[in-house]
Amino acid sequence: MSEVNNRIAVLRAELKISQQELADAIDVSRKTISTIETGRFTPSVTIALKLAGYFNVAVEEIFSLN
């Protein structure tokens, strides 16, 4: 089975924002951001698109299959 990898922590670090700031910006909980970053939760398409919009990148620049 494929595992979904992501670059959310890297992108957050580049912008110097916290998990809470990102969560507030895309209207999810900080725990959601944390579990996505650690790979324990694969986000819905809606959340993935919100993240891509926030970071102004394509979804494929955030998420990839291992």
TrEMBL record:
CDD domains in UniProt: HTH_XRE (cd00093)
Chain ranges passing through the membrane: none
UniProt keyword terms in alphabetical order: DNA-binding
Matches recorded under InterPro entries: Cro/C1-type_HTH (IPR001387), Lambda_DNA-bd_dom_sf (IPR010982)
A GO MF term: DNA binding
Keyword check for DNA-binding: yes
Database matches in SMART domains: HTH_XRE (SM00530)
Domain HTH cro/C1-type: 8-62
Keyword ATP-binding (UniProt): no
PANTHER family xrefs: HTH-TYPE TRANSCRIPTIONAL REGULATOR XRE, TRACRIPTIONAL REGULATORY PROTEIN-RELATED-RELATED
Protein known as: Transcriptional regulator
Source species: Thalassotalea marina
Lineage of source species: Bacteria, Pseudomonadati, Pseudomonadota, Gammaproteobacteria, Alteromonadales
